[in-house]
Amino acid sequence: MLRELSLVAHALSDQTRLRILKLLALRPMCVCELMYVLAAGQSRVSQNLAILKYAGLVTDERRGKLVYYSINHSAVEQAIHAIRELVDGAGLENTPDMAAEWKRWLDLQANPRVVTPIEDTGQ
Known about the structure:
This protein is mostly helical. It contains six helices and three strands. It has a three-stranded antiparallel sheet.
């Protein structure tokens, strides 16, 4: 879960990629159309599409000589669900990526004195 969310977070951390997603929400588009609308070069558009595709947020479909990109709505819904689970706070015990943290959380709840408070030095 955490690895997938970090890929999605990275993909959404760039304004060009957000603009591409917003455009793809209108309809599937090829690189040349995205280049025109974004006033960007082929390399920039292609690199950003590759990041979005690697995160699973977009899919591609060849139509003749052109490749059209579209939003992968099921992956977007999965990411939204995973974010809700992440910030919900419940279910930490069922998050395999955080087994060690869960164990320490239980230790902390059983014995709050295992943690020494950090003194405020006033700096």
